[in-house]
Every structure is written in structure tokens, then in C-alpha cells.
């Protein structure tokens, strides 16, 4: 098999890899709840950040920060639970944020050897702003865009998600996490419902102007933040409106029903329609029980990154959810994601195969890399993607999900070729300088 990678693809600038704060937050919550409130250089919390974010780890460069509580939180809360406080006079961050979340962010930023960007997302507004008056289940904002409810929610997002009060600078904020969830009766977690038309008008009349006229006007706004099944329709509704489109930097997408939504019909078509709008894979995690030592799950994650995201113009990949804790800690979802298994009784953690699969991308594809052309000389069972680093070096990631060894020739017209074997059930990364 032969690969040829002679040219850059101008649409292919990427920024990998992102991880959610919830995993580290749960680890520190355990320490905090047990009155071990100070960091230890040999503690599980420190070593987990080190494994994920530092030069000795796999180099995550984006941290996804939930605004207030989310479905992995130990308790449910917002930042303003006082009735009729539309001016947000009682807006305040609870100890979950000030003693857990914010110190964790600062610690990760200190340890990281690459720049780390912060992405914020809201789950639910204060319940007094919602049609049903509860955090979970079906419910949207009361009233109509540009009224007191929508204006209050827009100010809340800008005030919290990108606050400089704690010396944090956010790169971007999403308009809402999974807005379609809030349209479903019986949805079990915090949510806030929006239709495409409602989100369009909220961005155009409330959130967009509020953000643009604030001191945080350089923070990027991402729309959708939901299943790619909703594309390209959702993007058409929002981005064909000039007043909404001028505030939108990108489109965030989740992976949960990808099997119903081919990348060509969703991501590729959306990129064709709106080539100047970033596509951002903002959430992926397993919703099934843990499988210790599962190589198959690692392969499935790698496959989901290579095809379609890196091969269909998606610019990043965000891993969502906490490491699995032993014994479990009460929260919305207990035993789902599993790159890292933490034994809190022994102060130890274990890296699953999935962790190392993710490292092939986060470690070897730095921010600013660009996809390059990659052509297979014949049909085969390999998944592969090629990228060029900002310094001109080239990286090729090859995944073999079959049981058979596959002969492989990687050819770069600038330097020559490499003949090798891709073993069955394996992932390899090849990195070379072109000059």
C-alpha cells in the first residue's frame, strides 16, 4: 500500500486535543470532601493532570469548562438561584468552582508546556428563567428574544463563562450545550431547549450583541454544540441570517448519533455551504459500562477521530466526562468514560488503551497543523490521516482495525518512502522532517 502526500489542504487547520474539566474536578472533589484540601505533587489529582496536559503526558491543549453544574456534577446548582434577580446582583460562584474548578484550571495551565485554551458551555439557566421552572427535562427560556429573560441569560453567560475575576481568559463559549435535549420530555439532566430559529434569534438579538459589547469581545462564539445529525439544517437557519452569522465563529458538534448521520451529508456539506465557519468536534464519550483493558474501545475512538473528523474538516476533538472512580462517587453518570481508571482508596490511577490511542493525536498533532493529501494506492482496511506541522514536519497516523497485518509504503515526494507493516489491531504514528 502506498500513500502520497504532496500538497496541503487549505481548509484543514486543526487544534487537537480537548478534554473536559469534569474528570479532574471529580478527582479534586474527592480530595476536598475528605478534607485533603491541598495539592500533593505525588497525588492522583496532580498525576492525572500531568498525564493529560503536560509534556510528559499526552498534551491536551483545550479544557472544556461547564458553566455551573452539568450531568457529571456531584450536585445541581446555578450561579443565581435568587428569585427575580434579573440584574444578577446575587451572582456568585459556589465552592465547587472557587475551591475545585478554578484552582484545577490554574494548575493545568501551569503544568502545560503548550498553550491551553479554555472553552465554556452552559447547561441550564436558573430555573426562574425557564418555562417549566426546573433544571432538567423539557423546557426553554420564557418569553421571546430581546426580552428580560433572554437578556438576563445572555448577561449570565458573559458574566460567568468568560469572567476575568479569577484571572482566566477563555478562548470560546458555546451558545448552549445540546439545545435539542431541552426539547425532550423526560430528559434526565440539566438542559435548556432551543430550536434552530430560537438559537438564531437569541444569538442575533441577545448573546451576540452582549458578548460583542462586553470587555470579552475577543471570545469566540460557537453555535449548535449538539449532534451532527442536525446539520446542515441548523447551520442554514442560523448562518443565513446576517445578524446572527456575524457573531458566530464556529459550529460545535457531538458524536452520539453519528451512525445515523454520514459525515459527507453533514460535516462536508456544512463546510461546503459555510467554508469560513469552523467545525469543532466538541463532545465524545462512552455511554456504556467500563471495559477494563479494552483495546477495541481505543480503536473505535481512533477511528472516530480519523474518519470522519480529521478527514472531514472538523478542527478538534473533545473528550467529555470524568475518569472512572473506584469506589464510585455519586454524580449524574458514574461509570461511562474510561481512558483513566482511578482507585481513590489506593491513590492510584490506571491508563486504559483508550488513553494511549488518544495520545497518538494529542501528542503528535500540535495546534496549527494542516491536513495534507493522502491517497491509498489500493483498497485496504487501514484508517489513516496525514498532517503537516507548523514547522513543516509531517505526521501520518495509521490505524489497523482488522486482525491481519497489512504491508504499507508511505511515500513523501519531498524525502522518499518508508516500507513497513501495519500489524493487526494496531495504531502507529510516523513523524518526519521534510527538509
Order of helices and strands: EEEHHEHEHEHEHHEHEHEEEEHEEEEEEE
The CATH superfamily title of the largest domain? Glycosidases
CATH architecture of the largest domain: Alpha-Beta Barrel
Instruction: Give the fraction of residues assigned to helices.
Output: 25-40%
Q: Count of helical segments?
A: 10
Chain-wise SSE layout:
Blueprint lengths: L1 E3 L3 E7 L3 E3 L1 H12 L10 H10 L8 E6 L27 H17 L5 E6 L25 H14 L10 E3 L21 H17 L7 E8 L5 H7 L2 H4 L4 E5 L9 H10 L4 E7 L10 H12 L7 E6 L4 E3 L13 E4 L4 E4 L1 H10 L6 E4 L2 E2 L5 E7 L5 E7 L5 E7 L3 E7 L3 E7 L3
Helix pairs in contact: 1-2, 1-3, 2-3, 4-5, 5-6, 9-10
GO biological process, one term: glucosylceramide catabolic process
Enzyme class: hydrolase
EC number: 3.2.1.45
